[in-house]
Every structure is written in structure tokens, then in C-alpha cells.
């Protein structure tokens, strides 16, 4: 069979970061060349390997001399679809204002504020605003996003959010993986036990009938759902084909991370209060720990997650923005900066966690998350000579170009 020729070749990269798992996941190819045919990578390595794939009549060659080439970011934990903001609450917390003062002024606070605003918003408005956020995420290098429901807390509103997530897939080049998070809390006019019945008997069947979600998630924490309750909801999700994720150990340790290991969930997210023994269990069970440094930063978390201990215990970790009304962060570059400056990650570790780690937290590492032959050509090119510039040039956006499945979708060089 005649060798397939390249539609696109990215040549002469100062650093080509594969994030492939080779050399501990931190392989750097200097003067790297990458060839793409259709939506897949067909060669990665040197000029010698790429040159035979050039068709002078059809191959586009991009000179990446003096630039960094790496996989698109995979933001594996977001609450992308919501209405309104909680800016008054956020601003008050910055200076330590007693939130009761806001209440006296009629300004509501907390997650139920967003629930009310999201319930009241039209699907068209939710789609429009989510697409705006998604566009900015793409501009900063994110090519795959996980998007949760959870700001509905009733069947109609949860389904509305998930339908918007489905519409995002058809209106943006970014791949959107969807998570049902009906157990993000419960309505203030309903007993938790009764709401759990609605989740299990009404919401999950409706979600899966319309094929609106890939995963089922629960917030397992003091004041939310217990480990036993979380297990009940997640097992119902499994009965309907939804893989399990869990928000856990964010503000307390009540056994959620142990449950994640026991059920071999695809990810356990937050993990601020996770003890060493639970870390060992997560590592042994192959559960990816999703870490959210931007959330810790914006809420001034009293107990930041312990990345270095997780590393010692052999855990696989991912980084994500946790984009939501209480943590309005759209840039994975900013997340990487925080992970390095505040948690002891090296730039390469953080980049790997923001790419291949994110893919593993979504179960899509066979197709994306690294630059390897036969994987999707989800690629970003940075206007920087070394990858460390992502933490050195704080607050900027290094992205020059983004390719999604081989197609140019961002070009900031013009």
C-alpha cells in the first residue's frame, strides 16, 4: 500500500512536548516534526521521518522554529453551563465582609443563587453564554472540556443544562464530554432523601434515555452527600451505563475517596482533605485524582491539596479549571502557573496533568491527550522558545495557533 501523505506538517519546533508517557510522561523532542493526515497524527519525531510524507501539491508546512508544540489542553472538571454571576458574594469575601450584611441588602449567596438564575434562564441564553466561555477557553489552548450539570436540582432544569451541553458539541470545535451532577446539592424546599429518590427514579432514567451524559457525579462531603448515599446514586448511574466520578474531600474527609477506590471510579476530584491511606488506595485502584488549584486560590482554601504526597504515593493526577460562578477561570495556562508556584509541580508535570492527565480523567486517552501516532491531531503552538514560559510569563496567553483534529481553529498570529 502506498504511504499516506500528510495534509499538514509542523516543522522545526524548538520543543515538541509529546506528553505521551515516554520518559515518565515528559518527553521533549528538540527540532521536532509532526505530520497530520485528516484528523490524525501519522508521524512524530524528526525531519527524516516526516520528509517522505510531504506531497508538494497538498501538504501545508508550518514552520514552528523558536516555538513550543504540545497537545491541546483537556479541562476535565468544569461547570460550564450556568446563568448569572455571584460577583457581590465574591467581592465581599475578598475583604472578609460578613455575608449577613449582603443578606440584609437582599443579596443572596451560595450555590442556590446560581440554581435559581439557571432555572430561570432560557436554553438559548445558556447556550450563547456557554459558547462565549468555551471560545475563550479554546483561544487559550483548551481543545476538550468536561461540562457538568448541577445548577438545576430538578428534572426539567437538569435536562435543560444537559441538552445545552449536547448543543455545545454541535456549535464549537471543542469536544465536550458531559457529566450528570444532579447530586450537586438539593433544593431548599425538599428533603434530601426525597430528592435522592427523584435522582434515581426520574433524573437518571431521563438523562440516559436521551443519551445526554457520559458520567454520573456526586458531591460527597460534610453537609452534602454521605459516602453511603453517594454509592447509592452512583450505582444507579452505573445501572444505566453512566461511569462514576465524585467530588470529594473538598472540605472534609468522610470516606468519599475510599469509595472512589473501591468502585474504581474514573476520577476523584478536589481531594483537599484526602489522607495518605486513601491516596494509596486511589493509586492502587488507578483512579485519576483531579486537582483544582484555581478553586483553592479564589476561595482562599484553608487546606490546599497535597500534590507532593500524591506523587509520592504514585497517584495519577489531572489539572482542571473548575470553571463555575464561584471560580470563573477559563485558562488552563493560569491553572498550570498556580500548580507550579503553589503546589510544587514542575512545568512539565503540570502540562502533562493538563493534557494526558485530563484525558485519563475522562477515559479518552486512547484518542487524545498526547501527541502520538494515530491519535487525534489536537495541537497547540506557543509563541515561546521553551515550555517554562507558561509559568514565567504570568498572566499572558502563549497560544499562537490551535488545531482541532487537524483543522486550524485558532490563529492569533494574524
Task: Show unreliable segments.
Answer: none
* Shape designation: globular
User: What's the N-to-C terminus distance?
Assistant: 39 Å
Overall pLDDT metric: 94
Structure annotation, total helices: 16
Report helical residue fraction: 25-40%
What portion of the residues fall into strands of 2 or more residues? 15-25%
The secondary-structure class comes to alpha/beta
Radius of gyration: 21 Å
Count of extended strands: 16
Q: For this entry, what is the oligomeric state of its chains?
A: single chain
Summarize this, please?
Helices cover 36% and strands 22% of the residues. The chain has 16 helices and 16 strands.
Notes on the structure:
The protein is 36% helix and 22% strand. It is of the alpha/beta class and 414 residues long. The strands form two sheets. Strands 1, 2, 3, 4, 5, 14, 15 and 16 form an eight-stranded mixed beta sheet that branches. Strand 11, helix 10 and strand 12 (288-291) form a beta-alpha-beta unit. Helix 5 packs across helix 6 (155-171), helix 7 (192-209) runs parallel beside helix 8 (227-239) and helix 13 (332-343) crosses helix 14 (347-354). The longest helix is centred in the middle third of the chain and has 18 residues, at 192-209. The radius of gyration is 21 Å and the shape is globular. The two termini are 39 Å apart. The mean pLDDT is 94.
